[in-house]
């Protein structure tokens, strides 16, 4: 968990804004460290967390979280963490075996054009009544984490269906259940229009940015590679203040460590001016 990022977002495990849709994006960089941060943050905040892991195994997230001081195994055993292992469940759908039962959440793989109704129903059923934990435990507001939603495009799901999924998740988790949603999406190329392609990652990014309340855009340094600074994060608050004005976006440079990350206001690091 990154204390400097918490300060930037004015949040802590003891006090954070509910009902937020936080969008994490990266371009020619890797924003995975932010997903690990939010996973550990909400588990320490005693939230009920549903994690849709579409790109990595549970073991991967567990090893990183362990270095950050959080045990995913314990969180699962207590019923605080629900983890959908997309890689494993996808194989169960695409290559059925008698010994393994595929999760209904991945039914869309049989017909991607049908949309993500099954995945949304999985989210709704698992997080509704999330305050009721196993063994008498009570949890805080529910949280949905998705890493990463742009993978659904490569599986044949349309950008429109992904945006519908995020809209319904936001309506259910953020508005009805007063919880939070964190989604990661990736754009690999240069920032440009998807010419004639309404289903490309750029248009998905635009739609998700329109829906979110906070966007964290991770990208490489414009000056190129630097050993001491790994990239920069633009933090955009999209909710209007009481006077009707939007909070100005802020740009920070960052460096990822083995057990955390450091953030610098642009120009304050001696490595990059």
Task: Describe the model.
One of its GO terms (biological process) is tRNA wobble uridine modification. This is Elongator complex protein 6. The longest helix has 18 residues, at 159-176. Helix content is 33%, strand content 23%. β8 and β9 (260-265) form a beta hairpin. It contains nine helices and nine strands. The chain has a single domain, classed as 3-Layer(aba) Sandwich (Rossmann fold). The chain has helices at residues 3-9, 32-44, 58-67, 72-77, 86-94, 117-127, 151-154, 159-176, 201-211, and strands at 21-27, 47-53, 81-85, 140-147, 180-187, 214-219, 231-237, 250-257, 260-265. The protein is globular, with a radius of gyration of 19 Å. With 273 residues, the chain is an alpha/beta fold. The chain has a nine-stranded mixed sheet with strand order 3-2-4-5-1-6-7-8-9, with helices on both faces.
